[in-house]
Amino acid sequence: MKISLLLKIGCCMGLTSAASLNTQAQSPAPAQKESRVTAHATGPFEVKTTPQDDKSGATTLGRLLLDKQYHGDLDGTGKGQMLTAGLLAKGSAGYVAMEHVNGTLKGRAGSFTLQHSGTISNGVQQLLIIVVPGSGTGQLEGISGKMTINIAGGMHSYDLEYALPKTD
User: Fold this and answer.
1) For the segment 76-87, what is each residue's pLDDT rounded down to a tens digit?
2) CA 81/CA 115 separation, integer angstroms
3) Less Cβ crowding at N or C end of the chain, within 10 Å?
4) What is the pTM assigned to this prediction?
C-alpha cells in the first residue's frame, strides 16, 4: 500500500462534536462559562513514515510510525502511529492514527494529541482530524479544534481551527 497516497485521504472534513450528558441523580451547580479565544493556524509540514510489522499476517493491513515537523503558526514536532487497511490500488482504503504534537502554537508552548480518521472509496476522500479533548498541556491546556491537511505538488500543509481558554 502506498503510504503517500494514504496521507492524501481527504483534504477537508467537518468536525462533529457530541455533548456529554450528566446522569447523576443530583445536578451539580452550573459551571461558570470560561471565556475562549478562537483562532486559526496554518503552515507547511514534513512527514516521514516508517513501516512497522503489524504481526497480523494480513496483506491489506499496515502499521507505520509518524514523524512530523510543523512550521508556520505551529512550530514543533508530531510523533504518532498509523494503522492502515484496504487496497488503494483498487480505490478503497482507510487509516486511523494518533499523533502527539509538541511545540509552540502562535507563541503558546505545550502539547496536544490529534486523532486522525480517513477513508477513500471510489475516489471520494474523507478525513477527520480532531484535537483529543483534555490532551492539551502547558499553555495549550484546554485546547479544542480540528485540523485539515492539504497536499499540493507533493508538499503538505495544515490548517488548524482551534479554541483555547482566554488568558488575561
Assistant:
1) 999 999 999 998
2) 10
3) C
4) 0.79
